[in-house]
Amino acid sequence: MDQSYRPDTACIHSGYTPKSGEPQVLPIVQSTTFYYDNAEEMGRLFNLEDDGYFYTRISNPTIDAVEKKIAALEGGVGCVATSSGMSAIFIAVLNICKAGDHIVSSSAIYGGAFNLFNKTMRDMGIDVTFVAPDAAEAELEAAMQPNTRVVYCETLANPALVVTDLELYAKVAHAHGVPLIVDNTFPTPINCRPFQFGADVVVHSTTKYMDGHAVQIGGAIVDSGRFDWTNGNFPMLTEPDASYHGMVYTERFGKAAYIVKARVHLMRDLGCQAAPENAFLLNLGLETLALRMERHCANAQKVAEFLEKDSRISWVNYPGLASSPYYQLAQKYMPHGSCGVISFGVKGGRAAAAKFMESLKLASMVIHVADLRTSVLHPASTTHRQLTDAQLLDAGISADMIRMSVGIENIEDILADIRQALEKVKA
Ligand SMILES: *Cc1c(COP(=O)(O)O)cnc(C)c1O
């Protein structure tokens, strides 16, 4: 694989290069297991002494190709594909945190990730402090504890559309000898590559733009290979692992210690692997990612500008609008565009929002976001309904907020649909 490809070329060519006589298109290797004709060879694979496939829970050629493509897109040393974005987040954190440890996280994150940290991981003995997404350096510093092992945020938060100051978060994390883990689902590596701004690990829900067609649930963890795990804070990477005859990850795998451990320890024990067929579908989506992101962003910019001028709309939040409090940060971290998701309020509050949503014809009401069809959602009554009003506000969500995921249809059809739905609200 050629690491020098530009992102739009990497989308198509990275990860899989057929040899003479092999399929031109990435094949689905629908096999749980792999044949070897001697026990010695298989034993070396089990001991992690050789590279090779033996069981799909650990690795599989179809999944491997997609992992290599995503690693190339993010500029990382390795990637593990998982069964969902949620399992990617869980494994990324659990790989370096145990009971008694602590996470500092931006409060403006995906609702599922918030619940994972706030309830499930607390119950496991891993504590969390949430900080305001725009926290100043002193506030971030104050949240750090001696047992903090991860700082976590989203590049572009779903659904609050907050752009996080990655360099600031990375600076504070690194000053305390801990990595910054960034969820880069919304901008995708086409619009932002967090490793360039100090992030150490990137996670994705590949269910969203990377897939782009809403056909599979998946996740990915990418390792920059740049964090120094030998600073004393991460014994799970620097002390012998008894389940591999006392092997030490940092000694055996160097820069790839973190991502190898995620695979051979946590994927082995938790089994959240992607299905080969889903990896195949994800790869198809990735092939057109660069092209689709361009169109999503262009369409969303036009919808945002249209809504901002309409008197029936109370507010519009899109980082591509000069009026957005995140415009400057977006220009810095994602200068070629952010994503296709916009949020806004319809005057008249909850009832008007409901009427508007019901009146849309082209745009469909679904839980999903970030695929090629324009869709709408009311977060307060769906994705974020477990959150209290105070937690909603911390996550940057108001009761009247409509989230519109602008698709790649013709912009005139999208705008016509919004216009006719707004007419119904007025009536
Ligand atoms: C959807 C989403 C997730 C969760 O991913 P699933 O694939 O649904 O498990 C995590 N983070 C962000 C930013 C998301 O949008």
UniProtKB/TrEMBL annotation:
Keywords carried by this UniProt record: Aminotransferase, Pyridoxal phosphate, Transferase
InterPro entries named in the record: Cys/Met-Metab_PyrdxlP-dep_enz (IPR000277), OAc-hSer/O-AcSer_sulfhydrylase (IPR006235), PyrdxlP-dep_Trfase (IPR015424), PyrdxlP-dep_Trfase_major (IPR015421), PyrdxlP-dep_Trfase_small (IPR015422)
NCBIfam families: OAH_OAS_sulfhy
N6-(pyridoxal phosphate)lysine: modified positions: K208
SUPFAM superfamilies referenced in this protein's UniProt entry, alphabetically: PLP-dependent transferases
GO biological process: cysteine biosynthetic process from serine; L-homocysteine biosynthetic process; transsulfuration
A GO molecular function held by the record: pyridoxal phosphate binding
Gene Ontology CC entries for this record: cytoplasm
Necessary cofactors: pyridoxal 5'-phosphate
Name assigned to this protein: Aminotransferase class V-fold PLP-dependent enzyme
Assigned protein family: Belongs to the trans-sulfuration enzymes family.
Record has Transferase as a keyword: yes
Domain of life: Bacteria
Keyword Transferase: yes
